[in-house]
Amino acid sequence: MAYDENLAQRIRQLLSGQPGRTEKKMFGGLSFMLQGNMACGVLRDDMIVRIDPVQHDAVTAQPHIRTFDMTGRPMKGWIVVGPGAIASDAELQEWVIKGVQYALSLPPK
């Protein structure tokens, strides 16, 4: 599976100042890791974001947001943000911040 290089570059720019940032091919796309924990990624033209599982139901009730499910086993705390929710730089930044906050709340790997 390919991923949207333009979206990856937009995310890369937002994460440029984050210490401990790495990129890793995952799920057929590209993931952005902070201190060894996934914060967000790109799969096709969607963004994958890791959030606090407590917020999962409220977040997935929003338009263009759904649960990440590649294997038939939905992953609570992992969401897919569709292109309609990340069209503007401000929208994208909001989702990147959510992923960063959760990734940095976890112990480094």
Category from helices, strands and their pairing: alpha+beta
Low-confidence blocks of residues: none
The first-level CATH class is given as Alpha Beta
pLDDT averaged over residues: 95
Q: Which descriptor suits the 3D outline?
A: globular
Query: From the 3D coordinates, which CATH architecture would you assign?
Result: Alpha-Beta Complex
Helical stretch tally: 3
What is the helix content? Answer: 25-40%
What fold name goes in the CATH topology slot?
A: Aspartate Aminotransferase, domain 1
Report the end-to-end length measured between terminal Cα atoms: 27 Å
Count of folded domains: 1
Q: Biggest sheet: strands side by side, in what order? A: 1-2-3-4-6-5
Number of DSSP strand runs: 6
Tell me the β content: 25-35%
Q: Tell me the series of helices and strands, N- to C-terminal.
A: HEEEEHEEH
The major pleated sheet works out as: 6 strands, antiparallel
From the alpha carbons, calculate the radius of gyration and give it in angstroms.
Answer: 13 Å
